[in-house]
Amino acid sequence: MSYDEIMLSLLGAGAGAMRGNAAATAMSVWRGQGSNITRQILKCTRWQLQETTDLITCPYHYYCDSSYPGDYSTTVGVVVAVFSAYCLLSTAIFTVLEIGTGAGARAAGGIVGRFVKRRKYLVPSGPFLLPLVLLVLAKGQRINAAVFPLARLGPALLLTLQASALAFRNEADGDVRYAVLEASTVSGILHASLYLDAVVLPYYTGADALRWSRFSGDCATCLCRMEPLLVGGRTVLYRGLSKTALAIIFALCSRMVCRIYGEERLSVWTRSALEIASWVFVSGDAVYLAGWALAEGAAPTVAVYALVAALVFLCVFGKVYRFLAWAENRPQVQHCKPSLIITCHHDVV
User: How far apart are CA 162 and CA 150, in angstroms?
Assistant: First the structure.
């Protein structure tokens, strides 16, 4: 359902409850500039609660106390849409290549080997594209909603970034350089989560206000509610800064500790447990958002989150496949080491 249809249905349902001039004012406002009012409500970052004397039909009376400067040009929305599609595609391609290299494609070298070595320059979690992802999310509230509604599709971009950070490790020659790259990735994940919340929470709050409120007619954005308006609303439970983001941050930090101080058994098990928990949380978010998009009914949104969910499960499959390959080859390696020592001993004798 589009924003305009939401507004029309809400005003149609609330018209019976409105009385006299209030109903006429609200309907006239909608006919004149309803789309602007809808946009202002969905982009509102500060709601004010007014005192009311109507404790029966309007115990909570809110109005938007912030202004929206307007969307960026359509060109910006198109560029962001292309960039987001590239992030999804590059993560999927390198995941497939990682699965192939686990089967021995890395030893073959050639074009594939050189392409994999340049991976950090091409994936969204790398040091070159990560700042662009942060820029998109930081300016996401003003990106053209008609071309690329970041309030609805922003979580897909963050999930792609999280999957890329978990699937691909930073590669560097020295420990100091590796620590700098890993720390920048951790900082990027944290800032991306905060920037996304700044975009989606006003949208979720405004959508909840439109769905469960009626216009009082006192002003363009004045709403009557039967219950308090919560930040983020009650409909969508997804948040950028959540247990998923924290689990990924701890997993990346454990990687850095294992790389710098050595992979002792306790550190390896801790790192593996954190990475598994991170993948479980990312997969849960992907499934939840796909179900939310399906409930919303918008075909482009459903397609985007279906692709993101497929990408996440492809990454999980790649990790499981590489672990099984490692577990299968481990007994052979352990069996070959004693025979090599015995052979060398006989040669010396």
Answer: 17
Alpha-helical regions (H) of 172-216: 175-211
Burial profile 23-53: b = 16 or more Cβ within 10 angstroms, e = fewer: bebbbebbeeebeebbbbbbbbeebeeeeee
Distance CA 134, CA 154 (A): 11
pLDDT at 52: 81
pTM score of the predicted model: 0.81
How are beta strands 47-50 and 60-64 bridged, if at all?
antiparallel
Number of H helices, E strands in the chain: 11, 4
Greater model confidence, 180 or 84: 84
Which of these, 66, 64, 117, 71, lies nearest to 94 by C-alpha position? 117
> Do 46 and 115 form a contact (C-beta atoms < 8 A)?
no
What is the C-alpha to C-alpha distance for residues 186 and 193, in angstroms, rounded to an integer? Answer: 11
At residue 168, φ and ψ (nearest 5 deg) are -120, 125
Which SS3 state, helix, strand or coil, does residue 223 take?
Answer: strand
pLDDT of 83-109, one tens digit each?
Answer: 999 999 999 999 888 887 654 444 445
Average pLDDT, the chain: 80
pLDDT in tens, 237-264: 999 999 999 999 999 998 888 877 776 6
Amino acid in the structure at residue 75: T
Question: Which stretch of 4-13, 84-93, 168-177, 243-252 has the lowest confidence by average pLDDT?
Answer: 4-13
- Cα–chain center distance at 25: 40
Please report where in the chains the tokens 């792609």 appear, as a residue: 160
User: In this structure, which amino acid lies at residue 32?
Assistant: G
Q: How open is the CA angle 165-280-272, to the nearest 5 degrees?
A: 65
Contact 128, 121 (CB under 8 A): yes
For residue 143, give the nearest of 42, 73, 39 by alpha carbon.
73
Q: Which residues contact 277 (CB under 8 A, 6 or more apart)?
A: 247, 251
